[in-house]
Here is the input.
Amino acid sequence: MNLAEPRSLFPVSRRYAYLNHASVAALPTPVVTAMDGYLQEQSLKGGQALEDWDERLEGIRQEASRLIGAHRDEIVFTTSVSHGLNLVAAGLRWQAGDNLICAETEFPANVYPWMNLQRRGIEVRFAPARANRILVEDVVSLMDGRTRLVAISFVEFGTGYRNDLAALAEACHERGAYLCVDGIQGLGALQFDVRHVGVDFLATHAAKWMLGPIGAAFCYIRRDRMPLLDPVMAGWRSVVDRDNYYRYDSPLRPGGERFEPGSLNAVGLVGMAAAIDLLLTLGLDAIESRILELTSYLIAGLQARGCTITSPIARRQERSGIVCFRHPEVPAPELGERLCAADVIVSVRGDVVRVSPHFWNSEEDIERLLAVLNGSPTGWRKPGGSTRQLTEGPSLPRVIRPPAHPPLLLRQTPN
Here is the structure.
């Protein structure tokens, strides 16, 4: 399968220019089919459908580990990023007077688990954002002999800035600290390998760029860091002899399963596995290249219309699938309403519009957004039904070169 084929797997494309994967993914049909198959089987067989569940769960664990280059023992199934980060925050053996470092542009899921430690005497320090970038040197400047951990995102949700995780990991380890990453805005869109990057802990959720369902998530705990964490929850599935229901002294399982106390979101994990399989089949290198190609097309179109790009875009290595911008005259909330009315789905975050295309989107989707900026009340239409001139790329959807329009302002439209 090449990247030109999967658009048909996304029914949302029949109506919408869906450019909102940084918020919630539109589920592809293989994910829906897998989840429906699981539910149908349980409907027909009841508990008999679960006879092979442990084997299926092992396969899902292997898929998750392949996605990030981990070992299966390092994968912990969770329900959200907040869940995974709290396993780390509550599990580390902190001492009063320790400190950790966050960044001021983090999503709250990567703030509150750490702020909750303040009641235990832990100081939380915030690295500043400079031109929407979190600089490694600013993080390092906040570190001292009591710094235990740096908590930061792979990609910042409100700017699209891709943090230099490898440099941060090196800086942490040189100073005896750990790096904990919120991976939700990067995994599924960008290439990532925990061994290459050197992170100690990572939490992610399938419901955005991974193209999976809400409530299916996992946490990575590096194998040699696992003894540093005390399980904050224990249950029948976290112990070795879990099928011996009358034994109450069974030891904890040796790997990540020790952090999984009870029954898991089975149907969600089945959907997540189907999503990961789709991503791995297509290849994260090709997916990343296609996403950056689409965002380049978008950036050129926005700049030609006088919009200000607030996402850092000077260097390829700091870019992601997120592009945030301001229109020269129309406030972001109003522009977001106009785009939604034209069936162009994006997010408004503060005073910017956030656009987040995935590999299956097309240049026509971007054109529909740009048409609203041109003042079209209904969005994109092919002029006169004419056919655009297209060029082909290897194993990529058709590419339309960015138009060189002069800056145009939105016209006022009726309420």
